[in-house]
Structure formats: structure tokens, C-alpha cells
Amino acid sequence: MSNPMREIMVEKATVNICIGEPGERLEKAKALLESLTGKKAIKTKTHRRSTFGVPKGREIGTIVTLRGSDAEEFILRTLKAKDMKLKASSFDKEGNFSYGIHEHIEIPGTSYDPEIGIMGLEVAVTLCRPGFRIRRRRIPSRIGKKHRITKEEAIQFVKEKFGVEVVCRRSANHRDAGNVEELEV
Q1: How far is 106 from 77, CA to CA, in rounded Å?
Q2: pTM to 2 decimal places
Q3: CATH code assigned to 4-184
């Protein structure tokens, strides 16, 4: 790329395990995240009473935010657990993407611990360009349309940076939902 301001990079990777209730399982999830990432995990709380009947302020999950090279290394490790494939629907219109891992023992270099058990986790990756910091300033500012990251640019970045195959699942005939084929984007 000729313009350094158009270069896409990983801003952060947010790793989340939601248990849905406080207690021993939540403590195990927190210990698991800390062992997987090497960073301190924090607990997340409910903000209001939901339709599921969980009271406000109750701890229901745990989260870790990774930045820089730590984020890129963790993304690469977790993508190997997904066989280096992502669905095109994992990307949003602003270029961020997320994916889940059903069992943490699928991540390379992770072994089963009977004290913790088996848990799934979610990884949300936020992409940025130089100049995106203006969104966080006190003076309200917006990023111009030409400088925003599109879904197609994010898919191209992930293919080049991590060597991931992005798969698009479409039905050959819209009325025949059972006939699904894999197409590469």
C-alpha cells in the first residue's frame, strides 16, 4: 500500500466466557481465561433485569482484552482451532469479526484440566486504521466514509495477515434450503 494511513491493523481482541450465573463455574472460567491469555480477567455484570430473570448487578461472565502482539498471537492460536476457516457472516459491516470456540481444549498448546472442565469461549476482533483515535476524543468527531473499514477490506486483511480461508455458505436455489454448497469469497 502506498498510503500508510490506509493500513489496517488489529486494535484489540476481546475474549469472553459467559456462564450466566455467579459461583464456582464463573471462578473456573476466570482462571481458564487467565491461563489461556496470561492476562488478568475481569468479571462482567448484568446491567438491568433481563427477560431471563437475571437480577441487575449479578456477575455472569468473564472477559479479557488483548492488544498489540499479544492479540495477534492469540488470534492465530484460536484460528488454528477453527482450522483456519471463518464464515463470511462472521464479519460485520464495519470490518470487525468474531468467532466462537466450542471447547477450549481445541486450542493448540492447551491441555485438559479436570478441575476446570471444558468450556467454550468467544473471540471478538476489532480492526482499525491510523486516525481511528478521533472516535474516543471528548470533542465529538466522526471518521469519514472513505476511511472506514469495509467488510471486503477486512476479509482481505484476514486472508493476507493470518492466512485464513473465508467461506461463504449460500444455497444454490433460494427455495431449496437443504441444498447448501460452500463457495469461497
Answers
A1: 10
A2: 0.83
A3: 3.30.1440.10
